[in-house]
Amino acid sequence: MRLFVAIAPPAAALTELTVVVDPLRLRAPHLRWTSREAWHLTLAFLGEVDEARVPELSIRLGRAAGRHPPQRLAIAGGGAFPSATRARVVWAGFSADDQALGALAASVAAGARRAGAPPPDEGRKYRPHLTLARCKAPANVSSLTQELAGFGGTPWVADSIHLIRSKLSPGPPTYEDLGSWPLSPAR
Length: 187
Prior knowledge:
alpha+beta; 4 helices; 29% helix; Cyclic Phosphodiesterase, Chain: A; 9 strands; four-stranded antiparallel β-sheet; globular; five-stranded antiparallel β-sheet
């Protein structure tokens, strides 16, 4: 099964982002825009994981979550990977305590590794983002990223992490929440 670990932004934060993104969708219909229901902050993409590993993975994710406090986040700014002039992905960014969020992502990745589900991109610098659109071929999306750059949503507190199963099909992927674990309150 194809899995990832993520933080789910609250509905109010997604509504604020929708107001900014909907006009961009109309201006760039050639991009494959993700649905609001698919918007999340990935902590670790795990890729294909044997279903037999899920119970141990769940234990490890619970431990990882319990070591970190809730995260104060806001959806803010945006950009493109690998660059705005040769984009494959258009994204919204996050305003966060980068050190704390990076430590949470590293802890989640370490727990997955110990459970036998190492993230295929482990070792790469963690770049918190929310995928808005994908490009079939490299595209210049500079005008879109310029409009996203000034966006700053209302801050909110993320208090849990989720293990998500991604089911690929013709069309957009569907997501199934397999479990969630609370982040521990600050001690």
